[in-house]
């Protein structure tokens, strides 16, 4: 994309993306940002921003829109995080882990085979983990993020009830 421009707007969701090629310029949090290739772009819900391709060059980006209740629920499942800590101070920054998580999730949504709810939750938990880490929250010290996944427990129960195959000689 070269000739695109978004006027000032905001989203109800957490908007987390990556500039994949070129540069994306935008105004947010009282400052002008130039998101270079590889940078993460992060907008909290209701955070006003605009955007356009920078440097008169082609640019591409991937963006996820994660509902606020979903994101806060995931973060509070695995850590102790306030709403303020979930609103990262920077709108454009380098973080290879979050970059890979966002790109991986965005690309998995374009596959022929849709993600299972378990796969989707695992990917979202990774992103939530990164936001807690970047926002200065604390992690809950419990195995498997402090909870047992219902689908996993159902699968274990189903497997344990299956007849054992008889050995053939």
TrEMBL record:
Entry keyword set: DNA-binding
Domain AraC-type arabinose-binding/dimerisation: residue ranges: 3-125
Keyword DNA-binding: yes
One Pfam family of this chain: AraC_binding
Top-level taxon of origin: Bacteria
Protein name as catalogued: Transcriptional regulator AraC family
Organism: Vibrio variabilis
């Amino acid at each position: 994309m070269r000739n695109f421009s978004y006027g000032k707007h905001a989203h109800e969701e957490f908007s987390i993306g990556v500039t994949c090629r070129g540069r994306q310029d935008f105004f947010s949090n009282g400052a002008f940002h130039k998101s270079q290739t590889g940078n993460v772009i992060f907008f909290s819900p209701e955070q006003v921003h605009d955007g356009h391709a920078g440097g008169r060059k082609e640019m591409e980006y991937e963006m996820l829109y994660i509902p606020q209740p979903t994101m806060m629920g995931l973060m509070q499942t695995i850590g102790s995080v306030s709403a303020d800590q979930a609103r990262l101070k920077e709108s454009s920054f380098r973080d290879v882990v979050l970059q890979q998580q966002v790109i991986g999730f965005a690309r998995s949504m374009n596959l022929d085979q849709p993600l299972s709810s378990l796969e989707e939750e695992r990917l979202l938990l990774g992103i939530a983990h990164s936001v807690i880490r970047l926002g200065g929250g604390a992690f809950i010290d419990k195995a498997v993020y402090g909870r047992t996944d219902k689908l996993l427990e159902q699968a274990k129960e189903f497997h344990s009830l299956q007849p054992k195959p008889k050995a053939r000689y």
